[in-house]
């Protein structure tokens, strides 16, 4: 039980995917201008990341390993992620138009989010079990959501602040992200997984 | 060596084939039947977004029709829209419900710019963002965007917005009513060529 809790803390805070492992930086900079869109992106990413880590674990354990073609991992995971995202989009559109309106435009964007492929590959590298993979994916997404929402809240404030001209726009965003990453380094060593 | 290569290719092909089949099945199975009806109804409606039907725009009305609301609540569309809705839904066409307004020729809003005080009230009222302007500066209407919905007329505090009838082009030309056509020759050729007033005189 503690083990699972540690995985969550590790992925959300210590080895945060954005600020410690620098994965998924494009949506981190791209959709963090508004809190509302950041929330939508976070929810969609959480959904897809958890699902994709489950599916890629299954494909790896039941197809790639028995056939001893582990070297096809990257390409088949890309395939899995693309299909999962596409299928999720169809299913959500069919079952809940409301949810589709919230997540709709973000779902296709997530296909190209490197954090998704990163989680799938890291799961294999760390030899996680099924449940651990699920938690790892969910934790990674929760960490991504946490920093994305925090960052977008900060950027909304910065947009109204009196920033010196050379730092305006993306520059101050980069600096803020850097400082945030430094702050998250404070969690290093909190848990050892 | 060759076995491995073939195995890899077969695995990938199998995976891709399975996923492709899954997606293909899903796209057929999970198609939005109910929503595609809404899309079709929405395509027939005139997209004036005027709200005369009692719904806040054309799409909400399309959704209401799909759920069984009456099809005769759209004055800007008029007879033609009711007819095509009746065809689409396979129901009897009904006359336009007068409660929601009368059918009028297509019109666009025109702001008498000299009188505009720049209050931006019409900009907020416009459902299609067809009015440009800024506070305390004159506003004007983008004619190609205006749907002629009348919603900007009421909010204007100085009544400087006119609804102007659009001149009919070659696409929506209708022949003039015979009774209004001036007679080009002197006398009546047959008795029915006479106008009623002349005939009685």
TrEMBL record, chain A:
The record lists the membrane-crossing segments as 6-26, 38-59, 71-90, 102-122, 134-154, 166-187
GO CC annotations? endomembrane system; plasma membrane
- Give the Pfam families listed for this entry: Rnf-Nqr
> Which EC class, in a word?
translocase
Which Gene Ontology biological process is one annotated for this entry? electron transport chain
InterPro entries tied to this protein:
Ion_transpt_RnfA/RsxA, NqrDE/RnfAE, NqrDE/RnfAE_oxidrdctase
Q: According to its UniProt record, which protein family does this protein belong to?
A: Belongs to the NqrDE/RnfAE family.
**Assembly and partners?**
The complex is composed of six subunits: RnfA, RnfB, RnfC, RnfD, RnfE and RnfG.
Describe the task this protein carries out. Answer: Part of a membrane-bound complex that couples electron transfer with translocation of ions across the membrane.
Q: What is this protein called?
A: Ion-translocating oxidoreductase complex subunit A
Biological source species: Vreelandella halophila
UniProtKB/TrEMBL annotation, chain B:
What the entry lists under Pfam families is as follows: Fer4_21, FeS
GO biological process: one example: electron transport chain
Q: What's a Gene Ontology MF term here?
A: 4 iron, 4 sulfur cluster binding
* Residue span, 4Fe-4S ferredoxin-type domain: 107-136, 137-166
**What region holds the 4Fe-4S domain?**
33-91
Return the cofactor note field: Binds 3 [4Fe-4S] clusters.
User: Which cofactors does this protein require?
Assistant: [4Fe-4S] cluster
Q: Organism's domain of life?
A: Bacteria
Q: What class of enzyme is it?
A: translocase
Keywords of this entry: 4Fe-4S, Cell inner membrane, Cell membrane, Electron transport, Iron, Iron-sulfur, Membrane, Metal-binding, Repeat, Translocase, Transport
Q: Which residues bind [4Fe-4S] cluster 1?
A: 50, 53, 58, 74
Q: Where in the cell does this protein reside?
A: Cell inner membrane
Q: GO CC terms on record?
A: plasma membrane
The family this protein is said to belong to: Belongs to the 4Fe4S bacterial-type ferredoxin family. RnfB subfamily.
- State the NCBIfam families in the record: PRK05113.1, rnfB
Name under which the protein is recorded: Ion-translocating oxidoreductase complex subunit B
- What is the protein's species of origin? Halovibrio salipaludis
What gene name is given for the protein in this entry? rnfB
């Amino acid at each position: 039980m503690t083990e699972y809790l540690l995985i969550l803390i590790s992925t959300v805070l210590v080895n945060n995917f954005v600020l410690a492992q620098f994965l998924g930086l494009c949506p981190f900079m791209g959709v963090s201008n508004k809190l509302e869109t950041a929330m939508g992106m976070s929810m969609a990413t959480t959904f897809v990341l958890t699902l994709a880590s489950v599916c890629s674990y299954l494909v790896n354990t039941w197809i790639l390993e028995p056939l001893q073609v582990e070297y096809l991992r990257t390409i088949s995971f890309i395939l899995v992620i693309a299909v999962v995202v596409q299928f999720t989009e169809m299913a959500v559109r069919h079952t809940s138009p409301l949810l589709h309106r919230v997540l709709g435009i973000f779902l296709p964007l997530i296909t190209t989010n490197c954090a998704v492929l990163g989680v799938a590959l890291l799961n294999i590298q760390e030899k996680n079990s099924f449940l651990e993979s699920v938690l790892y994916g969910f934790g990674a997404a929760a960490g991504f959501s946490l920093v994305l929402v925090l960052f977008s809240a900060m950027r909304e404030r910065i947009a109204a602040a009196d920033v010196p001209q050379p730092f305006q726009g993306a520059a101050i965003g980069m600096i803020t992200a850097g400082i945030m990453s430094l702050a998250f380094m404070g969690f290093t060593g909190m848990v050892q997984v | 060596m060759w076995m491995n290569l073939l195995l890899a290719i077969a695995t990938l092909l199998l995976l891709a084939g399975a996923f492709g089949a899954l997606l293909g099945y899903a796209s057929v199975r999970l198609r939005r039947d109910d929503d595609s009806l809404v899309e079709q109804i929405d395509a027939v409606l005139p997209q004036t977004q005027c709200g005369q039907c009692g719904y806040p725009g054309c799409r909400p009305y399309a959704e209401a029709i799909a759920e069984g609301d009456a099809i005769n609540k759209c004055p800007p569309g008029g007879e033609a829209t009711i007819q095509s809705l009746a065809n689409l839904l396979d129901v009897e066409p009904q006359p336009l419900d007068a409660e929601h307004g009368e059918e009028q020729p297509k019109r666009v809003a025109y702001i008498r710019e000299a009188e505009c005080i720049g209050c931006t009230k019409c900009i907020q009222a416009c459902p299609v963002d067809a009015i440009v302007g800024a506070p305390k500066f004159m506003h004007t209407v983008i004619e190609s965007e205006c749907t002629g919905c009348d919603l900007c007329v009421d909010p204007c505090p100085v009544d400087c917005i006119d609804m102007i009838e659009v001149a009919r082009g070659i696409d929506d030309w209708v022949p003039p009513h015979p009774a209004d056509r001036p007679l080009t020759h002197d006398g009546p050729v047959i008795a029915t060529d006479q106008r009623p007033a002349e005939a009685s005189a």
